[in-house]
Amino acid sequence: MATTAFGYAGVPQGLQTFAEDTDRQRLTAAAVKAVLRLTGAWNTSNAEGAALLGVSESTWDRMKAGRWEGVLSQDQLTRASALIGIYKGLHLLFANDLADRWPRLENRAPVFGKRSPIRAMIEGGIPRMLETRQYIDALRGGL
User: Fold this and answer.
1) Helix axes 74-93, 46-53, angle to 10 degrees
2) pLDDT in tens, 87-140
3) H or E stretch at 8
4) Alpha carbons within 13 A on the beta-carbon side of 59
5) Which whole number is the average pLDDT over 19-46?
6) First vs last C-alpha separation in the chain
7) How far, CA to CA in Å, does 10 sit from each of 2, 5, 7, 15, 78?
8) Domains: count for the chain
9) What gap in Å lies between CA 89 and CA 136, rounded to an integer?
10) Which residues on adjacent β-strands are paired with residue 7?
11) Are 86 and 79 in contact (CB under 8 A)?
12) How far apart are CA 43 and CA 37, in angstroms?
């Protein structure tokens, strides 16, 4: 049987896990570019951007300068995917200005505990990033 983008004979393969090295190599450049753009829109510091993606500040600096040729790990691609989903969801929910300011605003929702979503995601890692994405999707009526 031939393999397609959907697996064998058109059967969907399920969620992307970023476990395969070939997938990580293929997706890294686009993920890094997207995260750099969205952290720029969110006006994050270098330390915040690096923490959100789960890289060192020196690696973050190389990424920003276009001098990084590495491959993101499974965890880092999961972080990128969550952040991209949050960015997209916010822009579907709010006007551009509020969508880009929202991640820095103190939030009383239980998932954030009176912290900004950026601070909560840095402190809570991947689980909090995924909860934030679910929260935005729920606000949009997507859950």
Assistant:
1) 110
2) 999 999 999 899 999 999 999 999 999 999 999 999 999 999 999 999 999 998
3) strand 7-8
4) 15
5) 94
6) 36
7) 9, 8, 6, 15, 25
8) 1
9) 6
10) 4
11) no
12) 10
Give the residue carrying structure tokens 């690696």.
Answer: 59
Helix or strand run (H / E) with residue 4 = strand 3-4
Q: Under DSSP, is residue 43 helix (H, G, I), strand (E, B) or coil?
A: coil
Pairing of strands 3-4, 7-8: antiparallel
Indicate whether 6 belongs to any domain: no
- What's the confidence (pLDDT) of residue 77? 96
Residue 27 within a domain: yes
Give the integer Cα–Cα distance in Å for 61 and 55. Answer: 10
In a domain, 56, yes or no: yes
The CA angle 71-63-27, to the nearest 5 degrees, is 35
What is the span of the domain harbouring residue 60? 18-139
11 located within any domain: no
pTM for the whole structure: 0.85
